[in-house]
């Protein structure tokens, strides 16, 4: 756990010598706590104190960067137990398992299916992150499958194999891709560590309990292995959830460095619905990587949407840029709808406008990311704000009818809005689902 300024001050020489560039040791300590300076600025700190301060400044859960064929993403680096305390930082990486007993045609088909799992929701692209390759046959077949998959996809890769020769050959072929190597435990950690360091891969450590995980990670730390992921093994969902929670709690609250790593869960349920529910549980608490057997579009959409919701900032609503958006082949006779700049509201409205096939303008008013009724109640969606937006965005030059459509839930403002804006106001439907039929009958 990070030390406060006063905690750091207690470890300093307290001489106020100013050699660090600050007037007092307390001022220097406060700057260290804010991460504005490093402990190296003080020439009088003992090596023991310096090591303690450097360890205290490390994140409680190590960030691990996973590379793809054309980029990278980060897991870990979480700082809170509960989302409302601040936010969850790095979204759970969702992946799917392919086995080396599949034919070339089957592999191609599955990869095409996984590549197609791309969805747009409230202006964001939702995609899975990983493909895991499980060894069920000999070394040659596993390496062959790794080569085929790596050539066909840019996803990050996980090697589910404990065959040291197969893993080494696969890593040699994947050099620069930096996959995750799964299956390292106290029996084979010493053998795998040098190979992992050589190829700069990531280790997924397996253990049946926290003591075993801690023992293996400590051993790997001593051998210079830095990037580690913790796999809590196969167990009932209740037991897994308890272990995931304890890992997060011990890392954040007790500063247990040997457990301060991202986590990984492999969901092996045969029933696809139970599989999806279990995976959703680990996205909520506290899986950094979740791997599944199946990859149905409805399944992926449900899990990726859940991930998007959980890893949004609860203190900062998702919002779009306030401006006028033309939807379709608009002209001067096109309808003009007004809504807020809350992303979910805006994209819901736009989706219904597109469904109507009536080219329209949508005016997004700056409500600081609030929905229609919330913004109206907070006096962020008012006749004054709407009138100002119409002028600011030059709406009068876009249409010749000088008529605007407002959400039905704020019909009460129609009179004031007409008076202040000089535009004719039509009250639209309360729910966005009513927009298509409304626009089709609009003149």
Radius of gyration: 28 Å
- Count of DSSP strands: 17
Low-confidence stretches: none
Quote the beta fraction.
15-25%
Cα separation of the termini: 64 Å
Can you list the strand order of the major beta sheet? Answer: 3-6-7-8-9-10-11-12
The structure class reads: alpha/beta
Tell me about the biggest sheet? Answer: 8 strands, parallel, barrel
Helical amount = 25-40%
Broad shape: flat
Labels describing this entry:
alpha/beta; three-stranded mixed beta sheet; 17 strands; 17% strand
Question: Can you give a write-up of this model?
Answer:
The model has no long low-confidence stretch (mean pLDDT 93). α1 crosses α2 and α10 (272-284) runs parallel beside α11. It contains 16 helices and 17 strands. It is an alpha/beta fold and 443 residues long. It has helices at residues 5-11, 25-33, 47-57, 104-115, 139-152, 164-173, 189-199, 210-222, 237-253, 272-284, 297-310, 343-356, 372-377, 383-392, 414-421, 435-440; strands at 64-67, 72-75, 93-99, 119-121, 124-126, 130-134, 156-160, 180-184, 202-206, 228-231, 263-266, 289-292, 324-327, 336-340, 360-365, 403-406, 424-427. The strands form five sheets. Strands 3-6-7-8-9-10-11-12 form an eight-stranded parallel β-barrel, surrounded by five helices. The protein has a three-stranded mixed sheet with strand order 13-15-14, sandwiched between helices. The chain has a two-stranded antiparallel ribbon with strand order 1-2. The chain is flat. It is 40% helix and 17% strand.
């Amino acid at each position: 756990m990070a030390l406060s300024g006063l905690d750091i001050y207690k470890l300093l020489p307290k001489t106020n010598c100013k050699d660090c560039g600050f007037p007092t040791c307390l001022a220097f300590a406060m700057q260290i706590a804010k991460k504005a300076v490093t402990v190296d600025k003080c020439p009088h700190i003992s090596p023991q104190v310096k090591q303690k301060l450097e360890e205290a400044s490390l994140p409680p859960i190590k960030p691990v960067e996973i590379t793809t064929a054309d980029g990278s993403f980060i897991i870990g680096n979480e700082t809170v137990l509960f989302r409302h305390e601040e936010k969850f930082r790095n979204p759970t990486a969702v992946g799917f398992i392919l086995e080396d007993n599949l034919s070339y045609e089957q592999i191609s088909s599955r990869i095409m299916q996984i590549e197609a799992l791309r969805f747009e929701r409230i202006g964001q692209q939702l995609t899975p992150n990983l493909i895991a390759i499980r060894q069920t046959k000999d070394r040659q077949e596993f390496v062959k499958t790794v080569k085929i998959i790596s050539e066909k996809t840019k996803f990050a890769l996980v090697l589910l194999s404990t065959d040291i020769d197969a893993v080494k050959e696969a890593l040699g072929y994947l050099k620069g891709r930096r996959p995750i190597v799964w299956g390292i435990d106290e029996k084979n950690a010493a053998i795998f560590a040098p190979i992992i360091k050589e190829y700069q891969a990531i280790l997924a450590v397996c253990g049946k309990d926290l003591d075993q995980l801690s023992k293996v990670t400590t051993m790997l730390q001593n051998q210079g292995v830095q990037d580690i992921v913790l796999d809590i093994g196969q167990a009932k969902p209740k037991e897994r959830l308890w272990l995931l929670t304890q890992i997060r709690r011990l890392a954040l609250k007790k500063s247990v460095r040997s457990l301060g790593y991202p986590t990984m869960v492999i969901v092996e349920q045969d029933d696809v619905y139970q599989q999806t529910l279990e995976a959703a549980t680990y996205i909520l608490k506290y899986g950094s990587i979740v791997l599944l057997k199946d990859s149905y579009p409805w399944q992926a959409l449900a899990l990726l949407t859940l991930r998007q919701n959980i890893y949004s900032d609860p203190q900062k609503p998702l919002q779009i840029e306030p401006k006028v958006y033309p939807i379709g082949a608009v002209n001067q006779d096109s309808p003009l709808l007004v809504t807020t700049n809350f992303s979910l509201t805006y994209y819901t409205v736009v989706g219904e406008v597109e469904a109507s096939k009536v080219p329209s303008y949508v005016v997004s008013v700056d409500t600081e990311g609030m929905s229609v009724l919330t913004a109206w109640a907070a006096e962020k969606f008012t006749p004054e704000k709407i009138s100002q937006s119409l002028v600011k965005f030059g709406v009068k030059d876009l249409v010749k009818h000088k008529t605007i459509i407002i959400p039905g839930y704020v019909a009460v403002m129609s009179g004031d809005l007409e008076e202040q804006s000089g535009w004719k106001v039509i009250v639209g439907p309360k729910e966005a689902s009513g927009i298509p039929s409304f626009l089709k009958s609009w003149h």
